[in-house]
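Notebook, p. 212. Picked up where the previous page left off. The plan for this session was modest: take the two constructs that came back from the sequencing core last week, fold each one, and keep the raw output in the notebook itself so nobody has to go hunting through shared drives later. Recording the first one now, exactly as returned: residue sequence, then the structure token string.
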Amino acid sequence: MLRLRCAAVVFLIPLCGSAASLSSSYRNWDKSPEAYYLTSDERSLWKNIRTDAEAEKFVGDYFARRSPELRAQLKERIAVADKYFSIGKVKGSETLRGKVIILFGPPSAIDRSTGSGSMGKGSIGEDVRYSGGDATVSNPLSNVGPGAAGLIHSEQAERFYFDYDKQHAPPAIGKAFRVGISIKSGSDQEALDPKDLEEKFEAVAKASIVTSPTALK
């Protein structure tokens, strides 16, 4: 029995070696808002990273393959998500709602329905709507007005919808669509159609690569 237990421990060590061998600067980098533009292929490669030097090169290549404006765009959209979608100690940029805003940009409309009833588009106030051209955020702290304040600490079970018309849809998607999210808490958020949302995330992530992905070879 003891031999079996030891064998099990030895077997498990390689499985967690990658994350355990990295410093706190990189250990969970792939789950951070900065890494939302990772493609599925890049996420698979990240699992093989063993040292901080490899991680540093990986992150450098990640940004090098993408537009020089990506860092500034991420900073703006993370600021929006943190300001308006944080719940308690959970940062908005680390939630599913935040990921939608960071990857897709500002929607044409936001709709929320709660367990106590339904709130149609616009009924939570025009101030809660995002606006902007070409799916960018020109002024991240002015697109959502004070009407959104009530959403910050809401713990009530609700469904949250982001509507993207053709004008606001990311070019990689190119058509109007809606994202529905079920929210139980800041850390418990699920897409109403997970497969469809993941496909859209992947499309936007792939489209973000503007140079030859040499690091993937």
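Okay, moving on. Second construct, recorded in the same format:
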Amino acid sequence: MIIAAGRQIELDDLPSAIGNITAEREAVARAERSQAASEGRTTSMEIELPSSMDDIERRAIEATLDYTSGDKTRAARLLNIGRKTIYRKLEQYNGKPVDTDSTKTDS
């Protein structure tokens, strides 16, 4: 049984052994995406089915931000969406306002 603070089970709600494995996998995937970008090549992401469109969208945005090393302007351009949409979606995912003053390239 897992007791979660919210409606959705988050990584912090899981036992640390599971959380550590998941965190390691996510770190490897982020590093691979960043490496691919630095080498000028494309990369792929795996989507588990069934998945909601919201989850697929979130994973695509997060993976693209990994690929661009957090550059939201470049990620928006690659995803063919507005930069403000990236901020709005991140705010939605995190449940809190995004600090727009600390972005790398905000022009």
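Notes on construct two before I forget. Residues 16-38 form the longest helix (23 residues).
Flagging for discussion at group meeting.
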